[in-house]
Amino acid sequence: MRELRIVDFICLKPRRKTFGHIAFLNKTDAERFLAVHGEQEVPSARYKPRFQAHLHLLGTEVFCKPSNRNIREFTLRALQYSVEQRGGNSTQERDEQPTFQLDIDEFSCGYCSFNEDQLVFTPEVAWSQKGVFTLKGRNFKLTTRDGYLLRIPTSSIIALVHYDDGLLTFILSDVPYFFLEHSKAPLTMTLPLLSLEKSSITHFRLPALSDEHATIIGQCLVYQFRAPALDLIRCMMSLKESDLSVFYHDLTPKQALRSSARGLHSDLQTFLDQLSEWTRKGDLPFGVLYQLQALVYNAYLHPTTVQILGSKLCAISQDRRQRGLAPISADAVRTLLNTVHWALPFDNPEVFQPDSLLATLRLDREAKMERTTQKSVSADLSSDHVLIHRVSVSPARITFHGPEREPQNRVIRKFPRHHAYFIRVQFCDERGSDLFFNPKHDYEQIFQRFRTVLTLGIQIAGRTYTFLGFSHSSLRSHSVWFSSPFIDGDGSLQTSSSIIKALGNFSGITSPARCAARIGQAFTETPFTLPVQNVVVEYIEDITSSDESRVFSDGIGTISLEVVERIWKGIPQKKGTPTCFQVRLGGAKGMLSLDSRLEGSVIRIRPSMVKFSTDDMRDLGICGMASEPYPLVLNRQIVKILEDIGVPDDWFFGLQNDRLRQLQLISSSADKTATFLKDAKIADSIGLYKLFRWCYWMDLDYREDPFLRSIVEAMILRELRLLKHKSRIPVPQGMTLYGIIDETGYLKENEVFITFDTISGLYAAPPGPGPVLVTRSPALYDGDIQVARNVVPPPDHPLARHKNCIIFSQQGARDLPSQLSGGDLDGDLYHVIWDPIVAKVHTSPPANYARVVPHDIGRVVTTKDMAYFFVEFMKTDCVGIIATRHMILADQEPEGTHASGCKLLAELHSTAVDYSKSGVPVDMAKIPSTGRFRPDFMAPGPLAQVYSKSKITLTELSSHAAYDEDGPSHILYYKSDRILGKLYRAIDEKRIWHERIDTGPSPDEDSFWARFVSYLTCRHSLSQPDSCTVDEALRLRSA
């Protein structure tokens, strides 16, 4: 094509077929192509005509002729879109990478250390496999002749080190990605894939390249490759314009420089044994030992180095105890995780020695800091949060983090003195992101590793942490709780089994998914609790339809004013006086709404709220409350349904333009910036908006400081991108509210009452009587948006006591919440719109899906069953895939969301959402295919890159989750003529960024902070005497 100067074409080939199609935008291009490469008929007198090929690919004849099919509409639109984007300096064209292709003779994995003042490389595992090393997209990729593939993202490269002898060394921050070609895999791996649906698998994802490699992979982040010297020089020249850190240094392997003759794996085991010994003897606090193990497991330091450091800390700790001083602070050791960096050429080798590391800790100063700040830290860490260690399990290694703030839950609150025996474990890909599933890759080896960790547990400083449980939200984020055995305050041994047993009776539940969901109620975040010893808990019947086929009160009970007032006293004053609460009480979950007619201290529970039986009814755990309304922000699914039911385009454009004007004015003054940060609750816990408010009062331009300026720019850029790429459009005449039921029977069928605080005029007043639109997310079915009639009760009516909620009627044949994406009243949030332009549209009938019967194993569920379900959920959760397919199909089908394919996807999406509780996955074969074509509003945008830790720029590079670095991107975009495409193209984020946001005065950091400090010093001197002590100064500096 390049020789023919043909640019605008698309090559399409069906899987497992011997034919394909080439589509040209211009007819003349097609004619020129056929003139050169078209098949030629060879005359034959007796037989059918034969043809001669004029195109050969990899030695195979390719016969080209005009197709007897018409070109598809979206193929033509994709070609036209490509031309438009290319002419408009598209950000979606992948940049031309430097030519980098290098033949590799062998490679190895190990670590770098210093021999006196010389940095040397010590290989632990070596492979004498030949291969080809290339740079494609943003990945270096090695493909070996044995079928192995090693992928190194450029973002994980700390440094590239090369030398004249042909050695190229990668010093990395994370483990590479490893694959094995299907054709080269052993039979044990390929045998399970003989089924038809997995015949497209091309590669297996591997946790390591060999068993020996797996033992050291987490601690060895240096990979060295040997190539022909002259070829390496040529390739390194091609990288001179890149932003990679490149060093010229001799890193020839020095086998004799091992810390011991046994190798790193043996050194690691010796280190772990020593940690266990220190734990058993109590030589060091567990928090310190955790940080020491983190230094090794996170590959910052060699196990032997950390073991020597630990021995020195033991001696110091013993001396402190004898002198009656405070123990060594874990925070002091944790500072090494932020200060120690990877060893690079020309570094000072002294900083990696145990004595130098010990000096870095500044133990005496940290001890003072710990004493002086203990009270302030405790105050900042309110009773609704605790410090919990966090562990990440990736396909290749385990890394340690924290401790970090974690909201309280029922289990953690039960053992206030034993938080160190609980950890939060995140199962993720390298670098902490979710596993990205490529349909061409098999991940069974990775999931088997995850099962092993869930079954055997994690060893930390002599303790064994094993699987405990997970909440519904943590299941979707692939996070679980582990615990280690301990003796509680009553002298009883607590294990994961005893902790679960004490929660309630789960023996009657024979579905792993449902059992895990019920146990997960105890792990739901409950920031606030109320003792209920003096509260009467009553059980009342559910409110149902006349034929009892529908439960109107699904998940909701009532609470008396006396109990509500007790709750008000126990929550922060800024929470106000909410009247409905999302709660956990024993085995019950759901909402409790105020019923002012109840006398005394009463809580009423309904059968639909009770999920399991338990004797533990001591505390009412509060997960959430209607303390304030949530402004309504549209999303792409709701926008599409609104378009399909008749909402005019002008309504969307008006709202989007209003939001654009707001974003462009945010950086015009410090006062507007402060208001934006406060309203958006950005860094609300530290009151960041106050800093900008002070700048406004002092008449200082915060944009003079690069860091403060970058904070605001990053927040505006985030909002701008959410607006363009996700259609996150605020609706002033709309709100998102908790849903509850009318306990009084005042509201008639299809009537609602919408009530909320205006927050001193921040929001529009609640709607008066009239039609309103009601929906909830996710909304995929065209009937997931319904019209209801808002009714305002008299001021003295019990319903008038409520606020920040939408109250549904208990009358009619079917409850309204169930018509909105299968909603209920156990804590669901509902979107309401009362804009007259929108509220009078004609909606579609709601969906009516049959209930999914949970998967039943026919026996008591074990911990292993739930752990295996957790992994199975990771494998088969396809909510995102279905939602994406629905969005594509709704744009391509003339009927939009009314099309039968979209309704099928909406039903499958409902099944996928329930999968976490039912254990019944979606049949992937039922998901309609949408091909290679996608609307332009799903195309990627420009990358935002940060330079010098403060300067944000938008580059021409693009990224997309579907982009496959192993081959050309198969996704083709076309110009959408629906509302989502129009809204998307109406925002030119690069123009807005450069003309309206990335502007301001020249940086003058020193002058800005000098004036800021001078102003505060002056105010301080006028308000109180100069009486700061050393301890107070240390506390302020640590804040």
From TrEMBL:
Q: Which UniProt keywords apply?
A: Nucleotidyltransferase, RNA-binding, RNA-directed RNA polymerase, Transferase
Nucleotidyltransferase is among the record's keywords: yes
Instruction: Provide the transmembrane region boundaries.
Output: none
Return the GO cellular component terms, semicolon-separated.
nuclear RNA-directed RNA polymerase complex
Where is each RdRP-like PH domain found?
Answer: 102-241
Question: InterPro entries given for it?
Answer: PH_RdRP (IPR057503), RDRP (IPR007855), RDRP_core (IPR057596)
- A Pfam family name for this chain? RdRP
Q: What is this protein called?
A: RNA-dependent RNA polymerase
Q: Which organism is it from?
A: Aspergillus terreus (strain NIH 2624 / FGSC A1156)
